[in-house]
Amino acid sequence: MISSPITIGVLILFLMLLGFMYVLQRAGISFGKRVIIGTVLGAVLGFSVQIIAGFPNNPMSVTFIKESTKWFSLVGTGFIDLILMLVIPLVFISIGHVVLHMKSAADLRKLVSATVLVALGMVAVAAIVGLVLGSVAHLGQGGAAVAEGTSKMRDVKPVVDTLLNLIPKNPVQAMSSTNVIAVVVFAFIVGAIARAIKSTGKDTLDIVTKLFDESHLIISWMADFVIGLMPYGVLALLATTLAQKGFQAIIDMGLFILLIYVGIIIMLIIQSILLTLVGANPWIYFRKAKAPLLLAFTSRSSMGVLPLTIETLTNKLGVTSTTANTVASFGTTAGMQGCAGVFPALCIVYIANVSGVQMDVTMYIMSVIVIALGSLGIAGIPGTATMSASVSLSGMGMSNLFPSISPVLAIDPIIDMGRTMLNVSGAMTNAIFVDKMMSTFNKKSYEDMSTVDTVDEEE
Questions:
Q1: Which of the four, 161, 263, 274, 412, has the lowest number of CB atoms within 10 Å?
Q2: In the predicted model, is pLDDT for residue 344 greater than 80?
Q3: What is the DSSP string of 5-40?
C-alpha cells in the first residue's frame, strides 16, 4: 500500500505527529490535554490530505488517500481492536464481581428496572427532539425520491425475537458475537446464583469469589493500559474519517448534518438540566467526561468506549461500580440517544417529506413509540444506526421507501461521530440518574476536581 511518493510524505508527517504525541507524554502533559491535542492534530492531518488531493468528490479513488488511510488504520483501528478485546471479559468479570458483592436481591431488581426505564425514556425524548427539528426545518422537502439506491433494507426482526435474543441460550456464542446484553444477563445469573449459595451458609465459595476479585483487578489494569494509548488512537481515527469523506457529499446533505448536530446539542442541554435537577453540576460532568466523549467522537464506537466509560463513571463521577457496569453495558446495545433516537427520527421525517407521505399527530406519536422500542438490540459499533433506521421505518410502514435514505448514508461517518458521542454521554448521565435513584451516588467524589485529568497509564 505504498506506491505513491505523496503516500510516503503523508506517512512521514503522520509518524512525526505520533512522535510529537509521545514527547508530550514523556513531558508529563496531562492525559486530557493530550487527548484534545491528538484530536486537533488528527483533524489538521485529515484536512491536509483533502487539500493535497484537491477536495475530490470520491476521495477513496485517489491512490495516496487510499494508501495513507490504510496505514492510519494500523494505529486507529488497532487501538479500537485493543479496546474491543477487553469488552466481553470486562463486562462478564465486572458484572459477576459486583453482583457477588451486592447487598440484596431487591437492589438488583430495582437496578434493572431503573436502568430500562431511564434509558427508554431518554430515547423517547431524543426521538421527539429529532421529529420536531426535522418538521420545523422541512427536512427533505423539495428533494427527489430515490427510485433505486445503494442502500438496502436490513433484516428487521419482530420485537419478540429481539427480546428472545437477549436470553443467552449459548453464552459462548453471545460472547463471540459481542451480544453485550446477553453477556450481562449470563453474568447476572452466575453472580446471583453464586451469591445465593453463599447466603445459605453451606459453602462460602471463597475460590470463586477470589477468582472474580483477582480477575477484576487484572482486567482493570489492562483497561488502564489500553486507555493510556487513546491520544494516539484519536489522532489516527479522526484523520482517517476526514480524509476519506468528500466535501461535496457533506455540502449536499448539509441540512441533515446541521440538524443532527443541533439535535445533539439540544440533548446535551437536556442532560445538563436533568443533572442539575438531581443535584449534579453539569459543568463538572463535562469537565470529567471529556475523554470518553472525545474517544466516542473519533472512534464512532459506543462499545469501543465502554472500558473508559466505566472507569470514568466509577473513578471520577461518583457512580458505584454496580451501576456503572450495568447501565454503561446496557447503553452499548439499547437506549442509544444518538443512533437510536435523534437519527431515526430525522430519517422518518426526511423520507416522509421526500416521498410525499403526510405526517400527522398519530404518526408522530407512533414514531416515538416505535423508535423507543426499536432502540433495543442495536449494537454499539460503527454504522449500525442504519439498523435502527430500518427498524423504525419498518415499524412506520415505510420499509419500501428505504432506498431514499441513500444520500444520508453517504455522509454517515460525519454524522456518526456526533451520534456516538451523544450515545456515550447518554449512557453516562443515565448511570448518574440511576445511581441517584438507588441512593448510592457519591456526590463528594463527583465534585472532587482532583480527578479531572487523571488516568492510570504506563508512562
A1: 161
A2: yes
A3: HHHHHHHHHHHHHHHHHHHHHHTT--HHHHHHHHHH
